[in-house]
Specification:
eight-stranded parallel sheet, alpha/beta, 445 residues, single chain, 42% helix
Length: 445
C-alpha cells in the first residue's frame, strides 16, 4: 500500500520508507530521571520512536525537559506524547515534541465541539511541524459511533475516516492512524477496511500497527506477530509497536524481527511445507526458540485468521540456549506452540484468554507482577477472557472482549468488572485477586 510521507523529527513514516519500530515508556513522565534512563535504554535497544504518557500539564513540562536532556546526550530519537481527553494538553505537547497521539473523539462528548478542538490542534501542529497519530481502539469508540455501527471493525474504520476527512479539509497531512484491538480478528479486519476506504477516497495516510493489550511471554509475542504480520504481508502498515506487559526493552527485538522480515532483510526458517486438505504440515530448522515462534506465527497466522487452514503440525527442530538441537516431531513443544498459535488466531482456545496493557506512566501498581499472579491463579478457566488493566483511562473501554476485568484505580485500589460493568469498586489491591476469583467461582456454580 503506497502511503504519503509523515515526518516525525528525523524519522520518516510511509512513502516507501522502511518500517519504523517504536515503543512506549512505562515510567511516570514526571519522574524525569527515570524516564530519561529508560529512553536511553530503549534507544540503545533499537527503538526509532518513543512514546510517553502525558496525563497533565505538569507532564508536558517534564516531557520538554526529557527532550532537552536526551538532546544534550546526542540522542535525537523522536518523542511522542500520549494524550487522552484534553485538547489543551495535546496542544501544549505539540509545541515540545515531534508527535502527539490522541483519540480526537475523547476531546468532547459533542462531536462538533470535538471537531473544533481537533482543528485547533492541527493548526498548532502545522505551525510547529508536529505529527499526529489518530489512535482509535476497539472498545473506546464512543456511543455516537457504536450506536450507528456497533462495536465492530466497521465502526473503527468509520470513526477513523471521519477524522481523516477533517484532516484533509484542514489541509493537514502529517498524520498517522491506528485501529488497535486485543482481538486479532477484529484488529486485522479493521485495518483492511480502513486501507480499502482510504484507497477508494484517494487518500493514503500511513498506518501504525499493533495488537493492543497482547499480554506477555510467548502468548504476547505470538499474538502480536499473528496480527501485525497478517497486515504487513499484504503491504499494509508503515510503523509498528509490539505491546508487552514486560520491560518495554523486550518489545524491540520482536518488532525489529517483523520490520526486518517484511523489509525483506530476513527469511523464515521454514524448510518444507505441505497441505493435507486444510491441515498444514510445516518443517523448521530454527536457530532459537523465539525465532521458531515468530517464524511460525508469520507463516501461518494469516492463513488461520482467514480460515485457509484449520490445523497445523510442526516438525523439524530449533536450537536451545546452549545450542542443542530440540526436535519438534510429535513433541510437547510442538503441541504447545500450535496451541498458542491457534489461540492467538482465535481458532481454538486451550486456556484462558488474557488481555493486559503494557503499562505506562498512568499505571499506579505493579502491573507485571499482578498480571502474572492473575494468570497463575486463573489458569484453569479455559476459554474465559480475563483483562488486567493499568488504569481507568483506557481499561474499561479497551477490554471490550473480556468476561472479567481487573482495573487499577490508583491509591492501591482496584475495580472489578463483569464484561463492561463494574461490579466492585475501591477494592484494596491485596484483596482484589481473591475477590475476582470469588466472583468467577460464584457465577460458575
Amino acid at each position: 500500500m503506497d502511503t504519503n510521507e509523515v515526518k516525525v523529527g528525523n524519522v520518516t513514516i510511509g512513502g516507501g520508507h522502511p518500517i519504523v519500530v517504536q515503543t512506549m515508556c512505562n515510567t511516570h513522565t514526571a519522574d524525569i530521571e527515570a524516564s530519561v534512563r529508560q529512553c536511553i535504554r530503549l534507544h540503545e535497544a533499537g527503538a526509532q520512536m518513543i512514546r510517553l504518557t502525558v496525563p497533565a500539564m505538569d507532564d508536558v513540562r517534564a516531557l520538554a525537559e526529557i527532550r532537552k536532556r536526551l538532546g544534550n546526550l546526542g540522542i535525537n530519537v523522536p518523542l511522542v506524547a500520549d494524550v487522552h481527553f484534553s485538547s489543551e494538553i495535546a496542544i501544549a505537547a505539540a509545541e515540545v515534541v515531534e508527535k502527539v497521539r490522541i483519540n480526537p473523539g475523547n476531546f468532547h462528548k459533542d462531536f462538533s465541539k470535538a471537531c473544533e478542538q481537533f482543528s485547533r490542534l492541527t493548526e498548532v501542529c502545522k505551525k510547529h511541524g508536529t505529527a499526529l497519530r489518530i489512535g482509535l481502539n476497539h472498545g473506546s469508540l464512543g456511543d455516537r459511533i457504536t450506536n450507528l455501527y456497533g462495536n465492530t471493525p466497521l465502526a473503527m474504520k468509520e470513526a477513523a475516516m471521519e477524522w481523516l476527512d477533517l484532516c484533509v479539509r484542514n489541509d493537514f497531512r502529517n498524520v498517522v492512524v491506528s485501529l488497535k484491538a486485543s482481538n486479532t480478528i477484529v484488529m486485522v479486519e479493521a485495518y483492511r477496511l480502513l486501507a480499502q476506504a482510504m484507497k477508494e477516497k484517494g487518500i493514503a495516510f500511513p498506518l501504525h500497527l499493533g495488537v493492543t493489550e497482547a499480554g506477555n511471554g510467548d502468548s504476547g509475542r505470538i499474538k502480536s506477530a499473528v496480527g501485525i504480520s497478517a497486515l504487513l504481508s499484504e503491504g499494509i502498515g508503515d510503523t509498528i509497536r509490539v505491546s508487552l506487559t514486560e520491560d518495554p526493552v523486550n518489545e524491540i527485538p520482536v518488532a525489529a524481527y517483523l520490520a526486518d522480515r517484511y523489509g525483506h532483510k530476513l527469511h523464515s526458517s521454514l524448510t518444507a511445507m505441505k497441505l493435507e486438505n486444510k491441515k498444514a504440515v510445516a518443517t523448521y530448522t530454527a536457530t532459537s526458540r523465539e525465532r521458531l515462534m515468530l517464524d511460525m506465527s508469520c507463516d501461518f497466522g494469516k492463513m488461520l485468521l482467514d480460515k485457509e487452514i484449520d490445523e497445523l503440525e510442526l516438525k523439524g527442530s530449533y536450537l536451545d540456549q546452549d545450542g542443542n538441537e530440540v526436535l519438534l516431531d510429535g513433541s510437547p513443544d510442538a503441541e504447545y506452540f500450535t496451541d498458542e498459535l491457534m489461540q492467538a488466531a482465535r481458532r481454538r482456545f486451550y486456556k484462558p484468554e488474557y488481555v493486559a496493557c503494557p503499562g505506562c506512566g498512568r499505571t499506579m501498581y505493579n502491573l507485571e507482577e499482578t498480571f502474572n499472579e492473575v494468570k497463575r491463579r486463573t489458569s484453569h478457566l479455559k476459554g474465559t477472557v480475563i483483562a488486567v488493566m493499568g488504569c481507568i483511562v483506557n481499561g474499561p473501554g479497551e477490554m471490550a472482549d473480556a468476561d472479567w476485568g481487573y482495573v487499577g484505580e490508583g491509591n492501591h485500589k482496584v475495580s472489578i468488572y463483569r464484561k463492561k460493568t463494574p461490579v466492585l469498586r475501591h477494592i484494596p489491591e491485596k484483596e482484589a485477586i481473591d475477590r475476582l476469583l470469588e466472583l468467577i467461582e460464584k457465577e460458575e456454580k
